[in-house]
Amino acid sequence: MGEVATIHGGRLSGEPSPSVVGELEQLLAEAKRGEILGFAYVVVVRDAPVNAFRSGWDGEAGTRFPLAAGIMRLQHLYAEAMMEP
């Protein structure tokens, strides 16, 4: 039987996303250096029958309002991106 190949640079099911892993590693490195004081996240998960995502936030005291502003900014940027052809 032949080797399974992807088309157009796709990934095989179950393989990690290099861009997602790279971004998470960069954020973890920044957090370990004490540069990140708070964060919010949404992750899309594989094989979740009902809830295909998880979301949450965490942060030190004093990060509530900057974090809220960042979430609102992200909502705006994402809405703009959804309108692009």
List the helices and strands and how they pair.
Elements: H1 18-32, E1 38-44, E2 53-59, H2 64-83
Antiparallel strand pairs: 1-2
What does this entry look like structurally?
It is a single chain. With 85 residues, the protein is α+β, with helices and mostly antiparallel strands. It has one domain. 41% of the residues lie in helices and 16% in strands. It has two helices and two strands. It has helices at 18-32, 64-83, and strands spanning 38-44, 53-59. A two-stranded antiparallel sheet has the order 1-2. Strand 1 and strand 2 form a beta hairpin. The longest helix is centred in the C-terminal third of the chain and has 20 residues, at 64-83.
Quick gist of this model?
This protein is an alpha+beta fold and 85 residues long.
Give the neighbour order of strands across the main sheet.
1-2
Write down the secondary-structure element order: HEEH
Provide the number of structural domains.
Answer: 1
Principal-axis shape: extended
| Proportion of residues in extended strands | 15-25%
Poorly predicted regions are none
Secondary structure class reads alpha+beta
CA gyration radius, whole angstroms: 17 Å
Helical content stands at 40-55%
**How many individual helices?**
2
The biggest sheet amounts to:
2 strands, antiparallel
Overall average pLDDT: 87
Distance between the termini: 41 Å
Q: What is the count of β-strands?
A: 2
